[in-house]
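FAQ: What does the model actually see?

It sees only this:
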Amino acid sequence: MTENTLDVPSWAGRFRTPEDEEIHVFDSDGQILHVPPKAADVLTSMENLCNYINGDKEDEFVNPIIKGILIHFWLAYVHPFMDGNGRTARALFYWYMLKHNYWLFEYLSVSTAILSARAQYYRAFLYSEMDDNDATYFIVYNLKAIHKALEMLTAYIERKQKEKRNTYRFAEKYPALNLRQRALLASALEKPQEIYTIETHANVHGVTYQTARTDLLALKEMGLLEMRKEGKKFIFTPVADIALKLGSRPSGS
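And it is asked to produce this:
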């Protein structure tokens, strides 16, 4: 999780020890939000966490999503590593969800939802710590983050469905366009301020520079893209009235 990513490479893959400097969790203003347990207690805490993860008692049921959140909370609360605790805790949560066949979590960006409200994330630890380690605050926060991630996924699917419908519509109205050009126009309708280059178009679709150049120049000749030169690079942008043009029938049809 942390190999080649930490300021101190020797921190990767090992727990904190009493010889390490004590760590604290700060907010954006530099105020301490959480003081993790002492390094001497880390090994025991992690052994207990492993037992909790793998020990499903028959007479005790905890919804897997709630348990996954508690696992996330446990590791992040203990902060067993010098760095990379947050990403490891979130990865452990994802792993637990997929282990219990919550396959949709493979497509949910819960981490994005959490990091977009990082201050609330840290405050959830603070409130839990202040209330005798009651993890309810953290559970509620994460359930909201999951809900937000579901909304983000739904919006993404709807956007892609719209792009697909537009692509089919372009295929009917402009049968000479290839799939790459239709995809670019669908993107241009959604983002009329977008900038396209020959290099980017080639990389996105895995084609040669010449093929990408032909695609973009053809759209320019059709009056759907404008072209200008910046240094040695050609820049293409959607024409100002592209929505109107794509909404009307092409000339000669």
